[in-house]
Amino acid sequence: MTAPLTPPHRPSSDDHHDRQKQTAGGEPAGPLGAPGSHSPQGSHWVPSQEGREELRADLRRAGLVAAVVTVAGVLMGFLWLWLAPRVPLVSDSTAVFLSDSEGEEAIGADGTFALLGLAFGAVSAGLVFWFHRRGGIWPTVGLAVGSVLGSLLAWQLGTRLGPTDDVVAHAREVGKGVIFDAPLEMHAKGVLLAWGLAAMAVHLALTAAWGPREFEGEWASHGGWGSPSGHPSPSGPSSPSGAGGGASPDAPSDKA
Fold first, then answer.
1. CB within 8 A of 246, min separation 6: which ones?
2. Most buried of the four, 127, 165, 202, 228, by CB within 10 Å?
């Protein structure tokens, strides 16, 4: 004869009602088990107070990074004005001509601005990573916005502080046959992105090399292969009956 099988445990109606009361009375648990991370309807995510404070702190850091990087554009503008080659002009009282028609000074200003942008991008990305090693998207956004604004500020500052853009009046002022400098101009507007591109590339490289690894904490919390101590069990899953190796109490048994 065969002994009757032990029926699996089925939750009673009282257990079901208790779960419904607990769900209705207490705070609903979020996706990670944190209370208050979902709305009472369970359909929309509601950030906790700690999450809102952390977001405001990240926004403040991003704004500070954007402001400091933008102000650095003043230094870049002065350096561009100082290092950019001048384009010599000369007048014969009827028109203004290039003093050296074969010179390459006209494109030298764009190249100087691009090189300065690459240098400022690398330095600014290194400083932002040094002061904000915890990573995150918001310091990166602040760095990108500040790089673009800093390039625009350097461009406008260099052109406004350079030689006047009224070439005719300047030629009349200096006189016939006198060489004078042309206004500082930018012909290739794409060099304005040099700062931002260099900053993003360097910051990404630094973050990939020395940035925080968020998945390490998650892996440690799961205990490696799933064992509580973080080490896989060499003997495999243990038997419910202990060291004796007997059959499970729920398994069918034959009686003589």
1. 239
2. 202
